[in-house]
Amino acid sequence: LPDNGAKIVVKKLLASDNEARKSLVKEARLLSKLQHPNVVRFEGVCLDKYAVLLEYVYFDFTPIRGNDGITVHSLANFLAVCEQSDCHGMHCSIFIHSSLDVALGLKYLHEKGIAHRDLKPENILVSNHHYNRLTDTRAVECMASIKPLICKLTDFGESRSKDIHTEQILKSKTARVNR
């Protein structure tokens, strides 16, 4: 990793058994091959401590609500904060932009033969890095209205191959129909 002072997320393996370690290495291998604006970025892996290093993604409410210091990481937290307070009309466009970002991220994963299998608001990270450091109020308002947030998929779980069969598929039968 380059020492540029950027924050990262360390996803550390809690279990110490061999299967858990293999799963972590498999996840790191998978993540290292993914590059898409709507999928969390892989930064590295630490094999001696069994940890995956990921991009640090957050949404800072300061440009929208003033300097209240609220930051959130997931879409679930973002929506909870917006529900509790006024987010200056962002509500309508949030659903459109977040839905599009999630769809684009899923499309990319599916093209790579990966099914997410744990898609929920907690596993959708949110960011406003594209405008949260701007100082011009008009520029912030413009960027926030055009693209209020960027969503990135994370925590794919055991979702990583073309050989995924859900219990439902395994139990299903196809009837032979003569036409």
Automatic annotation (TrEMBL):
Record carries keyword Transferase: yes
Designated name of the protein: Cyclin-dependent kinase 9-like
Signal peptide (residue range): none
SMART domains listed in its UniProt record: S_TKc
Superkingdom of this protein's organism: Eukaryota
Keyword Hydrolase on entry: no
UniProt cross-references to Pfam families, sorted A to Z: PK_Tyr_Ser-Thr
PANTHER family found in the cross-reference section: MITOGEN-ACTIVATED PROTEIN KINASE KINASE KINASE 20, SERINE/THREONINE-PROTEIN KINASE TNNI3K-RELATED
Organism (species): Paramuricea clavata (Red gorgonian)
InterPro entries in the cross-refs: Kinase-like_dom_sf, Prot_kinase_dom, Ser-Thr/Tyr_kinase_cat_dom, Ser/Thr_kinase_AS, Ser/Thr_Kinases-Pseudokinases
GO MF annotation terms: ATP binding; protein serine/threonine kinase activity
UniProt-listed SUPFAM superfamilies: Protein kinase-like (PK-like) (SSF56112)
